[in-house]
Amino acid sequence: MTNLTQTNEKGIVTGFAFVNHVDRNLNPTIENPKEFIKSKFYGSTMDNNILRYGIYRQLGYQYDLKPYLKKFLYKQYGSWSEAYAPNKTTLRKCIFGKIDQIIEL
Q1: pLDDT at 53 over 70
Q2: What pLDDT digit, counting tens, does each position of 13-39 carry?
Q3: Could you tell me the strand order of the sheet in which 61-64 lies?
Q4: Is the model's pLDDT at 62 over the cut of 50?
């Protein structure tokens, strides 16, 4: 998976096309990524791409949100998994079931 998304000094995340059928000259942006992440994690719909890869995909465009997320390693049901989240509390709310241990990487 190529990382083409850019974050500028003003905190605006620019998305790039990851499929062929969208306009490659159009680079949509997310103006306030922290509020956007909050709406995705605390809203009614959770996007698994954000949780697993730190990437948000919509309508053929991909946004890299990793600079605004922390990477965690968590143990659940005897196996370890990686996830991106703003903090441990948010991670616990997004993962269903009992989490035995969480380590920030």
Answers
A1: yes
A2: 999 898 988 888 888 999 999 999 988
A3: 16-17, 61-64, 55-58
A4: yes
Per-domain boundaries in the chain = 6-104
Q: In what order do the strands lie in the sheet with 70-76?
A: 79-85, 70-76, 101-104
- Interatomic CA distance for residues 45 and 63, integer angstroms: 17
29, 45 Cβ separation under 8 angstroms: no
Q: What's the N-to-C CA distance of the chain in angstroms? A: 21
Structure tokens at 9: 């000094």
Cα separation, 104 vs 17, whole angstroms: 31
Q: Residue 8: phi, psi to the nearest 5?
A: -95, 180
Say if residue 100 is exposed, middle or buried (CB neighbours under 10 Å; 0-12, 13-18, 19+). exposed
